[in-house]
Amino acid sequence: MEDLIARRQAIYNEIYDRRQALEEEVKNLEKTISKINSNIYDICEHNWVRDRDSQYDRAYTYCTKCNMHLRPATSGTASGTHSCLTE
Ligand SMILES: [Zn+2]
Known about the structure:
This protein is mostly helical. The protein is built from 1 helix and 2 strands. The protein folds into 2 domains: 1-43; 45-87, no CATH class.
Protein backbone atom coordinates (compact mmCIF):
# COMPACT_ATOMS: atom_id res chain seq x y z
CA MET A 1 0.00 0.00 0.00
CA GLU A 2 2.86 2.37 0.71
CA ASP A 3 3.86 2.35 -2.90
CA LEU A 4 0.35 3.45 -3.82
CA ILE A 5 0.51 6.29 -1.32
CA ALA A 6 3.88 7.36 -2.69
CA ARG A 7 2.54 7.18 -6.23
CA ARG A 8 -0.48 9.21 -5.25
CA GLN A 9 1.73 11.85 -3.66
CA ALA A 10 3.91 11.97 -6.76
CA ILE A 11 0.84 12.56 -8.92
CA TYR A 12 -0.39 15.29 -6.59
CA ASN A 13 2.99 16.95 -6.88
CA GLU A 14 2.97 16.67 -10.64
CA ILE A 15 -0.52 18.15 -10.86
CA TYR A 16 0.60 21.04 -8.68
CA ASP A 17 3.71 21.70 -10.76
CA ARG A 18 1.90 21.50 -14.08
CA ARG A 19 -0.89 23.74 -12.81
CA GLN A 20 1.64 26.37 -11.73
CA ALA A 21 3.37 26.23 -15.11
CA LEU A 22 0.11 26.42 -17.05
CA GLU A 23 -1.20 29.31 -14.96
CA GLU A 24 2.01 31.19 -15.66
CA GLU A 25 1.71 30.47 -19.37
CA VAL A 26 -1.94 31.52 -19.45
CA LYS A 27 -1.05 34.73 -17.61
CA ASN A 28 1.58 35.55 -20.24
CA LEU A 29 -0.83 34.79 -23.07
CA GLU A 30 -3.45 37.03 -21.50
CA LYS A 31 -0.88 39.82 -21.24
CA THR A 32 -0.11 39.38 -24.94
CA ILE A 33 -3.82 39.53 -25.81
CA SER A 34 -4.13 42.66 -23.71
CA LYS A 35 -1.29 44.34 -25.62
CA ILE A 36 -2.76 43.27 -28.96
CA ASN A 37 -6.16 44.61 -27.94
CA SER A 38 -4.59 47.88 -26.91
CA ASN A 39 -2.92 48.19 -30.33
CA ILE A 40 -6.12 47.28 -32.14
CA TYR A 41 -8.09 49.78 -30.09
CA ASP A 42 -5.63 52.54 -31.01
CA ILE A 43 -5.43 51.90 -34.76
CA CYS A 44 -8.99 50.76 -35.55
CA GLU A 45 -11.20 53.30 -37.26
CA HIS A 46 -14.01 52.33 -34.95
CA ASN A 47 -17.61 52.03 -35.96
CA TRP A 48 -19.38 52.28 -32.62
CA VAL A 49 -22.84 50.84 -32.29
CA ARG A 50 -25.01 50.22 -29.29
CA ASP A 51 -25.53 46.63 -28.34
CA ARG A 52 -29.15 45.55 -28.04
CA ASP A 53 -31.41 48.29 -26.72
CA SER A 54 -29.13 49.62 -24.01
CA GLN A 55 -29.11 53.39 -23.89
CA TYR A 56 -27.36 53.85 -20.58
CA ASP A 57 -24.15 51.91 -20.34
CA ARG A 58 -21.01 52.54 -22.38
CA ALA A 59 -20.05 48.93 -21.80
CA TYR A 60 -22.74 48.03 -24.30
CA THR A 61 -21.27 50.21 -27.01
CA TYR A 62 -19.01 48.15 -29.24
CA CYS A 63 -17.19 48.47 -32.54
CA THR A 64 -18.40 46.41 -35.49
CA LYS A 65 -14.86 46.28 -36.92
CA CYS A 66 -12.69 45.21 -33.98
CA ASN A 67 -15.53 43.91 -31.80
CA MET A 68 -14.24 45.75 -28.74
CA HIS A 69 -16.25 47.71 -26.23
CA LEU A 70 -15.99 51.45 -25.90
CA ARG A 71 -13.69 52.23 -22.99
CA PRO A 72 -14.75 54.76 -20.40
CA ALA A 73 -12.93 58.07 -20.66
CA THR A 74 -9.60 57.89 -18.86
CA SER A 75 -9.31 59.91 -15.69
CA GLY A 76 -7.42 63.09 -16.35
CA THR A 77 -9.43 64.02 -19.39
CA ALA A 78 -12.37 65.96 -18.06
CA SER A 79 -14.77 64.87 -20.76
CA GLY A 80 -14.70 61.79 -22.92
CA THR A 81 -13.24 61.87 -26.39
CA HIS A 82 -16.32 60.14 -27.75
CA SER A 83 -18.69 62.99 -26.99
CA CYS A 84 -20.88 62.07 -29.92
CA LEU A 85 -22.00 59.03 -27.99
CA THR A 86 -22.90 60.69 -24.71
CA GLU A 87 -26.48 61.50 -23.91
ZN1 LIG B 1 -12.90 49.25 -33.67
